[in-house]
Amino acid sequence: MAPRIIKSPFPPVPPLPPLNFHTFLFQFPPGNGIPKDHTIHVDGLTGETRSVGQFLERVKDGATALTASISQGGLGIAPGSDEIVGILSPNSLDYIVLVHSCLYSTIPFALLQSHTTQAGLNYLLGKINATRIFVHPSLLSQALQGAKDIGLPADRIYVLGGQVHGRKDFDALIKNVRSKDLQRQEVVPAKKDTLAYLLFSSGTSGPPKGVMISHGNLIFSIVQNLLNMQEAVKVMPPMQPTSPPMWLCFLPFYHSFGLHYFMFRTFVVPITLVILPRWNLDQVLEAIPQYKITHLALVPSLIHQLVNSPKTEKADLSSLQFAGSGAAYLPPELSKKMSKFLKGSPEIPEGYGLSEATISSLARPLPGMLGLQPAPRSTGILLAGQEARIVREDGTDADVNEPGEFWIKGPNVVLGYWKDEAATKATFLPDGWLKTGDRFRVDENGTFFFEDRMKDTLKISGVQVAPAEIETTILSQPDNIVTDVAVAGVPGGRTHDEKVPRAWLVLSDSGKALGEKEVARRVNAWVEERLSKYKWLKGGVGFVDEVPKSPTGKVLRRVLQDAYAKELKEKAKL
């Protein structure tokens, strides 16, 4: 039986040339149509600004500094060599410059998680076998220790976003190029499969894997986004005129969402990007009125903080027109709360993506877009140039509205995992299909609905139970007694390996006033009234000060499960 393949409703993607991504971004419309004197970047803390022209000049000089010989004061990195440049830093103006300098000269780089532990950094550096590291001064000691552990000479570590006595830094390298007026490096040609960078998976289900993204992947992804924007503007309601739209950036550049939104997509439309080093609620609430921010890109965990903080109610958010969410599932209740702060679009656009598909695969259409109406609680439709399947556990294709694993195919599917043949074979099939590990269903209109991560899904008496559905139900409880929740499986089923749902709740002020016992009673009653018996909280209800999450908002269920298992073990000793 032939596979049931779902096609994208977007117009087909035109043939794309095999180019260096930097060339494609800045030498073709619309990127080359932005005036060179347009202010593209603002440091949100210092107020320093850069125009498009200044940025492009700095990128070329940065690429020259990377490739110039050591005798000329450069680093002597040969384009197309086996070198891997690690970048370990909070967000900054020069972080973006360094990334584009590497792309310009086809020097592969690896984005390292700046929040990680020493052991975590050592693992990442060893995994990629980094040959150089650019690091922010605040993380230098961590980088030096990591370099020592993998045998990387200390003189291969450079400073990004500051100066440290006795150590080369990116700004000084660029100044050297300019003071000596070195012959500038030209853009190095790239093929579709030329490695652009390594990005590490979240590691929520095991050690992080290095995802290999190519120049061809990046070009295709940008075109997908442009086609999505092209269809959206046809039906988008007019927004308050601003010149230009002002975006606030605090999402980490080492993650796909922050990387693509703020390092790549910002160059295809004339916007101004105000950059903060990282998420800080006080700085965000101060920057919004100071810079008259109109647009925010968020993840669910940050939306949760924003809408539930007393500080937000007192802040001036009158300039906000638009907010988007990604990287993790956004419960409808959170979306509704966030929409109240927006003066423009009442909708918070969502989508679905993963690093293994470069960034995005699904986007929720605006009403009327492509003749479609967004279905309630849907995730979206396939972006241009992709095909998808929903696959049962036995490998056969699921029926309409039947949940199964989401498989995708298209030029946005990446090269594989860095030096991990087993994981690559398990995830990337020979015929081009990518197994995402996420459960979806798709309706008769080609609209996709997220069910859960396959690894999180419980099977109770043969019935699949999605924790996300239970979480959404609990958050919809009308008494506003819970501000956040996580559901995961714990022992207690009919067999040794069967798990049952347990909820961990974060209480609101009104919930605290009621007390844990009464809150548990109300939550259980609400769940049992609305969900089938298999989805009841037979593992009980627990209470936490906060739900553990990754920096991008993914719930770390295993942290809660491990803590609960330890708790049971301690009780068994009594």
TrEMBL record:
Source organism per entry reads: Rickenella mellea
AMP-dependent synthetase/ligase domain ranges (all copies): 37-418
Matches recorded under Pfam families: AMP-binding (PF00501), AMP-binding_C (PF13193)
The question of whether Ligase is a record keyword is answered with yes
> Domain named AMP-binding enzyme C-terminal: which ranges?
469-554
**Keywords (A to Z) from UniProt:** Ligase
UniProt family annotation: Belongs to the ATP-dependent AMP-binding enzyme family.
Recorded superkingdom: Eukaryota
> Has keyword Ligase?
yes
Protein name (record):
Acetyl-CoA synthetase-like protein
Any GO MF annotation of the entry:
CoA-ligase activity
Q: Which InterPro entries does this chain map to?
A: AMP-bd_C, AMP-bd_C_sf, AMP-binding_CS, AMP-dep_synth/lig_dom, ANL_N_sf
